[in-house]
């Protein structure tokens, strides 16, 4: 268990969990924060209720951007093969 790959995988898994939690909080906050009023009082953006637009459309774009940033700057290339057998 002294393999460096496990510590990298552990760190990257926690980054993934953090992004998933951020996504859930974003979605929940906008969906239930803006969507709890009467339907007659809703505001609409591009024909969609504002709560749906911010929670699902903008939330998706923000999370895709966060995943891109995480993969680009925090994730590392790790060989999956066994180092003793020449990486196969």
From TrEMBL:
<keyword id="KW-0472">Membrane</keyword>
<protein>
    <submittedName>
        <fullName>YhdT family protein</fullName>
    </submittedName>
</protein>
<dbReference type="InterPro" id="IPR010398">
    <property type="entry name" value="DUF997"/>
</dbReference>
<feature type="transmembrane region" description="Helical">
    <location>
        <begin position="52"/>
        <end position="75"/>
    </location>
</feature>
<dbReference type="Pfam" id="PF06196">
    <property type="entry name" value="DUF997"/>
</dbReference>
<feature type="transmembrane region" description="Helical">
    <location>
        <begin position="12"/>
        <end position="32"/>
    </location>
</feature>
<keyword id="KW-1133">Transmembrane helix</keyword>
<keyword id="KW-0812">Transmembrane</keyword>
